[in-house]
Write a structure and sequence with these properties.
CATH class of the largest domain: Alpha Beta
Helix content: 25-40%
Structural class: alpha/beta
Largest sheet: 10 strands, mixed
Number of helices: 12
Strand order of the largest sheet: 1-6-5-4-7-8-10-9-11-12
CATH superfamily of the largest domain: Vaccinia Virus protein VP39
Shape: elongated
Number of domains: 2
CATH architecture of the largest domain: 3-Layer(aba) Sandwich
């Protein structure tokens, strides 16, 4: 059964999981029905994506999210693009939550366009069936002819470490088949954004591209990696057609923790292919006085790290020591300038190697780390290496307690990367 719900008058009766969105300046509280919160897009991510989309000239027609979940992304599109939207969601409670969440955003951001509010509608139904969705809108008196922009964020299994394309619900091919004839296209193709799992492999990315080319041969595509830090990619999306960058197959977006700050956006790179993208990591033994910097792992994964690093004060005078994991590492001889670090959050920490510690990072041997830190006038020593989750707070707590009683003046960190037997003690720049 296909049914329509409207933000203007949809009640909250029977809706639960009303949770604050800490990434919003407005302190939104969103409904996430039927355990939908882990699947929902944070407001700050949704907003930044809508702002990027604003720079493109979209074809005439509605903004459609054919698997809208809690409706946060489509609400952001409506706010920034000032355009009526249609969301489709198979789960009735989530569709109702989407309508309520849309009203929350509209109201708390001071929306005044009653026309936009009235024209926005959420459809409880199958997002794969374009004919049926548009027929339901027509029966309700909505004069929708074509879709100007299509957004798809398919559900993925929450307990899967690698997401196959066949696990997505709805599948990409089903959406393309159901909506292709309803998409208004420009000379550069339609406007489509596929919000995919960050866990898909390069081969799966190529599979997605091949699928897209099967419906729109040769259309432009730009892969976009979005990160909020924390050593991971939060979103991986493919921008297609007239919202892709013809000369740039890759985009990286780093969203700062402070919602008042603008995201860092970078375009560049080469097309995704079957070749290796591994960065060369020569076997180099670091020396005292060498600088060590941790690079944002999501930037490395996007394939744009070298381009960005070469724009800094250190130029191309750096060596990769580690490119995998949460803490990719470079060595360099020049100190990073302060203005380099202030521009972005892409280097979480940088420091000069002052010593090596040939001991195990255990509670039994932690005193040795303390003593060596004191020799270098360190008052605060942070563990920046892989440690068992149950052990890390005990080790860090011991370092904090012992060093707090002394009179050091510097901050430092300890790290050990792959292939390195000793821990490196670094003083923060």
């Amino acid at each position: 059964m296909t049914r329509l719900v409207y933000p203007l008058n949809e009640p909250t009766t029977g809706l639960f999981e009303n949770n604050p969105d800490k990434t919003s300046l407005e302190k939104f509280r969103f409904f996430h029905a039927d355990e939908g919160k882990p699947l929902a897009t944070p407001w700050q991510v949704a907003l930044s994506r809508a702002i990027i989309l604003r720079q493109y000239q979209l074809p005439e027609g509605i903004i459609l999210d054919c698997a809208c979940g809690s409706g946060i992304q489509i609400a952001a599109y409506s706010e920034i693009l000032d355009h009526p939207v249609v969301g489709v969601e198979l789960n009735e409670n989530r569709a109702r939550a989407s309508a309520v969440n849309f009203r929350t955003v509209f109201t708390e951001r001071g929306g005044t366009s009653i026309e936009r509010l009235n024209e926005t509608v959420f459809v409880i139904g199958d997002g794969r069936d374009g004919d049926k969705v548009l027929a339901a809108l027509a029966e309700a008196g909505k004069s929708v002819q074509q879709v100007g922009f299509l957004h798809l964020d398919p559900a993925r299994p929450r307990n899967s470490r690698a997401h196959a394309l066949t696990e997505m619900a709805p599948r990409l091919d089903e959406i393309f088949e159901g909506w292709k004839k309803h998409l208004n296209e420009t000379s550069e193709g339609p406007a489509i954004l596929l919000d995919l799992s960050p866990r898909i492999s390069k081969n799966q990315m190529l599979e997605v591209e091949s699928l897209v080319d099967g419906f729109w041969p040769g259309v432009n595509k730009t892969w976009t990696w979005t990160s909020r830090g924390r050593g991971r990619v939060d979103r991986l999306a493919l921008w297609i057609g007239c919202i892709a960058e013809p000369e740039y197959p890759r985009r990286f977006v780093r969203i700062p923790s402070d919602p008042t700050q603008a995201p860092f956006i970078m375009l560049g790179g080469k097309v995704v292919d079957n070749g290796s993208e591994m960065v060369d990591t020569p076997s180099v033994q670091p020396k005292r006085g060498t600088y060590l910097s941790i690079v944002d792992s999501a930037l490395v994964e996007s394939g744009l790290a070298d381009t960005w690093l070469q724009s800094l004060s250190l130029g191309d005078e750096y060596i990769w020591a580690q490119v995998t994991g949460r803490r990719p590492i470079i060595y360099h001889q020049r100190r990073l300038e302060d203005n380099d670090r202030q521009r972005t959050n892409l280097i979480p920490v940088s420091g000069r190697i002052v010593d090596f510690i040939d001991a195990e990072l255990t509670l039994k041997d932690i005193d040795e780390f303390v003593e060596i830190a004191l020799q270098h006038d360190i008052r605060k020593l942070t563990i920046r290496t892989e440690v068992a989750p149950d052990l890390q707070p005990k080790l860090q707590g011991s370092l904090d307690r012992q060093l707090a009683r002394r009179h050091g003046t510097k901050e430092g960190f300890i790290i050990r990367h792959q292939g390195q037997e000793k821990y490196l003690l670094c003083v923060v720049n």
